[in-house]
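Usage

Read records sequentially. Each one opens with the input sequence:
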Amino acid sequence: MKKFLLIIGILQNCFFLHAQTHISGGALKPEQALMDIRHYNIVLEVRPDQGYYEGFTEIKLDLQATSSMLLFDLDSLFTVSGIWVDGVPVGFKHQSGLIRITGKEAFSAGRHVVKVAYGGKPHIAVNPPWDGGIQWSRDSLGRHWVAMSCQEDGADIFFPCKDHPSDEPNEGVDMVITVPKGMVVAGPGLLQRQQTKGTKTTWHWKTNYTINNYCVVFNAGYYKVERRTYQTVAGRSVPMEYYVLDYNRHRAAKHLDLLERSTRLLEKYFGEFPFAKEKIGIVETPHLGMEHQTMNAYGNRYRYTKIGKTDFDWLMHHEFGHEWWANKVSNKDWGHMWIQEGICSFGDVLFYNDFGGKDIYLKRMKEIALQTQNQLPIVQGDVVDSRQAYHSDIYGKGAFFMHTLRYVLGDDVFFPALKAFATDPSFTYDQTVVTNDVLQHFSKYAKKDLTPLFSLYLYSTDKLSVRVRETAGNTYQIWLENMAMPLPLDVQTTTGRQRLMLSGKAIKITSGSMPVIDPDGYYLKKVIYE
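and closes with the structure output:
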C-alpha cells in the first residue's frame, strides 16, 4: 500500500511539474527579468502524419546586466538537442519546462543570440482555444489541417521563449515553416517567400511589429486566399486577406464584406487599423477563434446574426477588435487582462449601438449585467498568472464598466478619451499597460479623480448601493451608500425623468409613486427601498 501511494505521489508530482508549463505569466523569474527579448526566428519542419515537428528557434535578446545563467521556458514534451549562444555551444539543462543555460563564463551585459535546436510532439489542445495546444485536425475532405492556440497555456508549449506578457519581441518575428506540398501556411506579418522542393513547401512569414507571444503561431491547411485592398481611416492602402479552406472560397467575398464593415466601425472608435504596414488577415481554423496578430483565427462557420438589418459575425468582430485591445494595447501582466478583454468586448456592443440603435445597445448591456457573476474581482493583483486571471467577468463586467464610464463622462469626453488611449505611444506597441494607466488617463479627461469608481468595479465584487427612503407622502430621499465620489443617476418619477448628481448626502425628490433608479441600466447596482 505504501509503495502504491508513493507511486501515486510521484505521478502527481510529475503531472504538477508538467502542468506548470501550461500557465503563462506569474512572478517574473529574476534571471528572465534581466532579459529584453528583441526578436524570435522560428524555423520548423512540420510533419502532420506523425504529429511532430522539429527545427530551431533563434532568440535575440539584450541582457541588462551580467548573468551566470540564461533562462527560457519550453514544454518538457520537446527534446532539446543543442544550444548555442553567439555561435558557441553551451551547456544546458531542460527540466520541468525550463531551459537553464550556462557557459564557461558569465554572460556579459549586451546583445546575445541564443539558438535552441529542438523537436517533438507538441501538446495537443484539449478544448481550443481555451485549453490550447496544437490541433492535428482534418478538414471535411479528410486532409490535414493544423491549428495552434496558446493564450492561457503560454507560447512555450510551441517554442522556447520568455513566457511573460511584459516582454514582447520589439523587432518582431520570423517564422519559416515547412509543410507537405499542397498545404498552405498562414502566419503573422507579410509573406516573404514560398518555395517548393520535392514533396515539401517552405513558407516564410515576417512581422516587424512588436507582437505578444501567444500570437506567434501558424496555421496550415488547404487554403485559398481571397484578397482585396482596404483604405484605412488615415487613407493608407492595406492588403485584406482571408485564408479560407478551398471548398469554402465561395463564402469568402461576403465574409470580407463583414470584416471590412467591422474594421470601419473599430477605426471610428479606436483609431486607424494598428498594423497598416502589414495586412488585415484572417484564417479559417477548426477551433472557434483567437486574436492572432494580422492573421486572426476564425472558426465560427459563417453563423451570422442580424443587428438591425445588418449581418454580424460576433466571433470575427470580437477577435478582430483585439488588434487594438491585446495586440496594439497589451497587458503588462495577466492581472490586468480586463483591459484587452473588457474594452474589446465593449467594442462588440458598439456594433449594436451603431447598427441596431440605442435601444438595442441598452438591451444588450442589460443582458451583460444579468450575466455578471461577481464572484471574483476583475483585478486580483498586479502579478497573476493566466489561469488565475481568466474568468468570464473580465469580458462582460469589463465591458459594462466601460458602459458605466461612458455614462459618467458623457460621450463628448468618453469617446475621445478612449481613442486617445488606443493611439497614445505611451500605451501602445512597445509599451505595456496596467489598470492604473487606464485610471490616470480617463481621470485626466474627466478632470476628476475616478479612483472610487475604478475601485468599485475592478477591485471589488460590490455593486453600487443606492438607498431610497420614503419620508412622507410623495417625498423620498435618495443617496449612495458605498461611493466616495458624486455620480450622475437617472431617476424616473411620476413627473418625468431627471438626472441627479448623487453622493453620500441624501437628495430629496417628490413622486406620486416609488421612483425608479437608473431605468436604462448604466450601473451594476442594488437599490434598497425603505
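Summary fields computed downstream for this record:
- The longest strand covers residues 35-47.
- The CA atoms of residues 176 and 204 lie 4 Å apart.
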